Amino acid sequence: MSTIRVQTTQNVSLEYEVASVGERIVAAIIDYLILGAWLAACGLLFALVANGGSRMSTPFIIVLAILAGVPYVFYNLFCEVFFNGQSLGKKARHLKVIRLDGTRPRLGDYLLRWLLRLVDISIPLLGPLVAIITIVVNGRGQRLGDIAAGTSVISTKPRQGAGPLAPITTHPDYMVVFPQAIQLADHDVATIRQLLHKGLEHDNYLLLHEVANKVKALTGIQTELPDEAFLRTVLRDHAHLTALQG
Fold first, then answer.
1. Which helix (H) or strand (E) holds 153?
2. Helices (H) and strands (E) in the chain — how many of each?
3. By CB neighbour count within 10 A (0-12 exposed, 13-18 middle, 19+ buried), where does 58 fall?
4. For residues 7 and 101, is the Cβ–Cβ distance under 8 A?
5. pTM higher than 0.70, yes or no?
6. How far apart are CA 119 and CA 128, in angstroms?
7. If you compute the radius of gyration of the chain from its CA atoms, what whole number of angstroms results?
């Protein structure tokens, strides 16, 4: 699986695994199954009312059409805005939308992705094919909507053979961001790894915030980096500084 390097506004470099085309297709299938089930439920309600002999008024039909259509059209936009860059399909496959500058996507970014998704959907066969080709050729996990919004879709799964307690290795030319990371004891680092893994696995961002604040209190680090990026950077810095001392 290819990786993408994100350069944050604080000049910190982060590396993520790009979501594969196959995983994104599976996530999309899950989303469409959910939407299909919703439309089927609305259709069943329509059939029950019609078979019940009740005369369906125009307002009722309009309300039912809105009830079926609005969630179908706005599903991806709603999910990504309120579920931190994940639709239910993405969540099931451990995928997530991020910005290429390391910050959390804004409403405008999600809106742009959604608008260009509608273009993909509106062109049968050709639209999805263009999206797949764009993702493959681009190499950064970006379809047209991602390119326009400056976003990408990454995998949040731990890398193969790299569980929460696996040692971190850095390039010899790696530039340490927080030298204070060396103040952390080995057991502190192991705990940070575990809690970071747990927080990301369960989308527990309050836990990540608490861990980040604890690390800052222990080391005296002051930074505006997002909690996840900060903790990942501290772990890399500690691993690199420890290796230099070894």
1. strand 151-155
2. 9, 4
3. exposed
4. yes
5. no
6. 10
7. 22
- Cβ 6 vs Cβ 18: under 8 Å: no
Beta-ladder partners of 131: none
Length of the chain: 246
Closest by CA to 234, choosing from 160, 214, 161, is: 214
Per-residue pLDDT tens digits for 181-234:
999 988 888 889 888 888 888 888 899 999 999 999 999 999 988 898 899 899
DSSP class of residue 181? G
Tokens of 106: 């804004």
- On whether the CB atoms of residues 178 and 221 are closer than 8 A, the answer is yes
Q: Where are the domains of the chain?
A: 3-155, 179-245
Write out pLDDT tens, residues 2-40: 777 776 665 566 677 889 899 999 999 999 999 999 999
- For the residues of 71-122, what is the DSSP string, one character each? HHHHHHHHHHHHTTS--HHHHHTTEEEEETTSSPPPHHHHHHHHHHHHHHHH
